[in-house]
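Weekly modeling sync, notes
Attendees: S.R. (lead), two postdocs, one rotation student

Agenda item 3: backlog of single-chain predictions. S.R. asked that every request posted to the team notebook include the full sequence so nobody has to chase files. The rotation student volunteered to paste the first one in as an example of the format we agreed on. Action items at the bottom.

Example entry:
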Amino acid sequence: MRRSMLVFAVSVAAAVTVAIAPASGIGPGGWDRVGHGSTTSTPSLNGKVSALNTQRAGYLYAGGTFTNAGGIASADLIAKWSGSTWSAIGSTPLTNAVGAEVRAIAYDTVSGKVYAGGTFLNAGGNASADFLAVWDGVSWQPACTSPTRPAFTGNVDALQIIGPTLYVGGEFQDGAEIPTADYLLACDLSSGASFSVLPTDGYFNGPVYALTADSLGTLYAGGNFINLATLPAADYVAAYASGAWQAMGAGAGQSGGAVTGIVRSLTVAGTKVYVGTDALDVAGIAQADHVARWDASALAWSAMGANTAATNGWFPTTAYIYALGASGSLVFAGGSFQDANGTATADMVAFFDGTRWRPIGSNGAGGGPLPAEVHALKVFSDKLYAGGNFTSAGGDTLARDLAAYALRLPDNSISKVFSSSYVGAGVYNKSGVGQARTVSILKGGLEHVYVKIQNDGLVATSFKVKATGGTTAIHAHYHQIGVSSPWDITSAVRAGTFNIGTIDPRESTVIGVSIYANTNSGPGTSFLITTRSVTGTQPDAVKAIVTTHN
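Predicted structure, as returned to the notebook:
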């Protein structure tokens, strides 16, 4: 249900609070820092985030080039976030080597083991743990067996677990000394035994940068390869099911493939596979630029939204999609792009709501929220987390390398005029700081304020409103503008039980507040109006400051 402001001939003054999950400091552009470093004035991370994983309940794993997370010196290249605190994986770093990076993380829900892949050597001091290592609860160890040398001789860029098997993609050849294991190797999770899923050497003729699996257990691989398994249409992305590789549709590729450029990211929702690619016009569809959807059930490609003219894709001609994520009906894309669809805030990260693409927040000054690339995206604890090499997020310089945006985010603002002069838009706190209006009332008289409640989150949601403050001699009545029944919501707002109903993203509704001052009232008081989502996420509040005069 969509709410909008409807003008009624009534005056009201209100203080509204929307509650959203506790945050460490939402900036003016709506993005939140993820903890802090050794002091509350230092960023939590000191380097790029390239990988995120949420397979272990209650934790977000982050990997990259950072050498400190949350002020923990041993949290090098990989660490975990509980939603409130950072912790290291073990008591010693994965590696102290300069320039090393974790690019992929997998978590085995059966054994509880953590797998990290990247550019490092000698993980945990183990000479055989190069480019891929597993944390077994005690130490870092090699993850895949190999006869005489480490299993990998080149970077590991992607990991995917399906049943008892770990699939490893990257820039290596002859994985585990198997001639047919170029750029992709499979390992048994229990024994570590390595094997190839390619019967002939050279089936992959270029790196694998992305792996994912759909709900049927089909493996998808994306990267910089063509004619995989000698299939003319298996260019840049392909599927592996029932022991065989399969092309994904056809188009105008080098050999008839649907995708004509490097695939850098993949994600799934059920049997829908989302592909991030350098290519335009996937499967010949003019609107399918850089991000397209493959339906594994219908065996068909489709575009996801379009530009305003509906003649082309939403992303700019040159764009690199390094990360994709999905949650419910939402799809998230991150990478290197600016001003998508000519929108000033559509830089580096965006989301698809099922119909169209939208920006996510801003820098608080009308520009894009992130000044540099996004390399990882995950939804965790009702927030979207974006990792990359950016130095600020949403205008907050402490939200660097990793930042979060609430899926359900109320934004209250307050005005003395129904249709204009609202203050507090884009300001998020539960104390009303920066979101206040002062109103002067003649003793024995009445004045009004209006509270606009906007959904700045990414999903439609319901909000609850609670008002506190006032005195017996200075009191307020609350009304929901544009709603005839119940119009007077005073008792529910005072009790904190009033639900304004579902608001779509970027839509709003207005609460009117009528403030009365008795003839014997004191010099003044204030009303705090707080809004929170019904799921209990970060609240936002505005304040009506009342002065009285004779």
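Discussion: group reviewed the output briefly. The two ends are 45 Å apart (CA to CA).
Action items: rotation student to repeat for the remaining queue; S.R. to check formatting next week.
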